[in-house]
Amino acid sequence: MPVPTSPAPLRTSLLRDSVHDRLRDAIVDGTLAPGEVVRDTELAAWLGVSRTPVREALLRLGDTGLVRAAPGRSTVVAEIDLAEVRDAHAVVVAMHRLAVTEAVSRLTTGDLDRMREANARFAAAIDARDTEAALAADDDFHRVAVEVSGNRALATVLDQFTPVVRRLERRRFASHAGSESVDLHARLVEACASRDEQAAADVASRTWQNLADLIPDPADRPDQQESR
Fold first, then answer.
1. Is the entire prediction scored with pTM above 0.70?
2. Nearest-angstrom CA–CA distance, 104 and 64
3. CATH number at residue 107
4. DSSP string covering 39-50
5. Which range marks the domain in which residue 135 is found?
């Protein structure tokens, strides 16, 4: 059949995704704080859209654990659940390792330059203690391998679970671990440039594994120890 000429479905899809991304980012950066009640009418007014895309976005955010809702009750921004962050982190580490493994042989000189440029911006943001800029540059850096891998399933999984990790990762870039990541990024670029798949995969894992130090083991929490 002929390709439809009406652009309406595309606009609807873009609006839905845009609303979801705005709300997701507001939760990750703390604009919408943990425990805060979120109402679709208020969110719709804030974003200048109807309630329908907001409701759809909240359902998707519920699937990733960023909001909690119960039938007939309020929807609230989820508290940071360390067990969920730990699970999501393990998935994110594995996916970035896979992305680098699949991308190494395909990375061009231009791709490697994009990674170096992003790491330079990342280093400058860390020095300036600009968390927002650091996170943006870090995303740009890792996005190169994800895009070059061409693995859509991998990208979809990361899109779902990375925001869960990012809520805690904001603390990382205010610590020494942020500076360490600059060096790890540089090592990753060089491993990729050398087409050393194993070394690149190992560095990619190490880069994301650093965040594990910021995820306390629930079993080590005082309240859990008292209940033993």
1. yes
2. 30
3. 1.20.120.530
4. -HHHHHHHHTS-
5. 82-214
